[in-house]
C-alpha cells in the first residue's frame, strides 16, 4: 500500500524546490525562515505547510528578492507578495509550484483554480508545453527519488488527462480537413502510460488529420485490422516502460514484418525507452521522435 506523505526530509524539500539542502539549513539558521520538527533521534522533518512556505520563498528568490528581504516580509504575508508578483514573465514558475502543492495535498480545487488562471493568459496548447511538460518531467525525477508516491503521480496525471480529453473532444466534432493520411495511435502490450499518446492525438486532430485512438496495451496483430481500411497509415506509439530495453529490437523487427507492408505505412514512436536506440538502427519505415515538439513539426 502507498502511504501519503505528510512529512518531508530536507532532501525531499531540495528535490521539490530546487534549493540545495545546505542552503535551506543556512536559511533556517540565519533567517529563521523554516522551523523543522525533529524525530527522537534529532533528524529534521518538515510539514506540508513548511513545503508550501519554501516553494513561495523559492518563487520570490528566483524573481530577484534577496533572502534577507524575504525574511522580513512576515510569514503571513509571503503568499500575498507572491500573488502580487505574478506576471507574464513569472506565471510559469508560480503555476508549477501551485500544481506541486495541489499534488502533495491532493487538492483538486487548487489544480482547477491554477489552470483556469493560466487560461486567462495562455491557450491550452501553451499551458501544456510551458507548464505541464516541465511539471511532468519534474514529477518523473521526484518519483525516482521517492519524494512523491505513485498516488501523487496518478492524481495529477488524471487531472491533466481530463484537460487533454476536454480539448480533444472540441476538435472531434469537426470533419478532418486533411484525409491524405490516417494516424492510428496505440500503446503496445503491457504499456499503460497513455498521457503522452493522448496529447499526440490532440495535436494530430488540431492539424486537421483523421486520428484513430486505440489506447493501452494493444497486441501487434490487432493492428492488422486497420490495414485494409486505409491507404496511408501512420501508426503512432509511446514507449515509457514497454517494450523493455532488451525487447526493443525484436519489437521493431516484428512490426516491420507484420504491419509495414508498403511504403504507404509508417511507424512513428516516442517515449523514454527510445533513449536506448538510434534512428540508424531502426528498420525502414520506423521513425523515432525524441520530443513531442519534434513529432509535431513533422505533421
The CATH topology of the largest domain is Rossmann fold
Strand line-up in the sheet with most strands: 5-4-6-7-8
Portion in beta strands = 5-15%
Structural class: alpha/beta
Please identify which CATH superfamily of the largest domain we are dealing with: Cobalamin-binding domain
Mean pLDDT: 91
The total number of structural domains is: 3
The secondary-structure element order is EHHEEHHHHHHHEHEEHEEH
CATH architecture annotation name of the largest domain? 3-Layer(aba) Sandwich
Cα-atom Rg, whole angstroms? 23 Å
Count of DSSP E strands?
A: 8
CA(first)-CA(last) distance: 43 Å
Q: Tell me the overall shape.
A: elongated
The parts where pLDDT drops under 50 for at least 5 residues are none
Number of helices: 12
What does this structure look like?
- This protein has 299 residues and is an alpha/beta fold.
- The protein has three domains: 1-85, Multidrug-efflux Transporter Regulator, Chain: A, Domain 2; 87-173, Orthogonal Bundle (Methyltransferase, Methionine Synthase (B12-binding Domains), Chain A, domain 1), CATH 1.10.1240; 174-297, Cobalamin-binding domain (Rossmann fold).
- Helix content is 49%, strand content 13%.
- It contains twelve helices and eight strands.
- It has helices spanning 10-17, 21-31, 48-62, 67-70, 78-85, 91-105, 108-119, 124-144, 150-172, 195-206, 248-258, 292-297; strands at residues 7-8, 37-38, 44-47, 178-186, 209-215, 233-238, 265-270, 286-288.
- The chain has a five-stranded parallel sheet with strand order 5-4-6-7-8, with helices on one face. Strands 1-3-2 form a three-stranded antiparallel sheet.
- Strand 2 (37-38) and strand 3 (44-47) form a beta hairpin.
- Helix 6 (91-105) packs across helix 9.
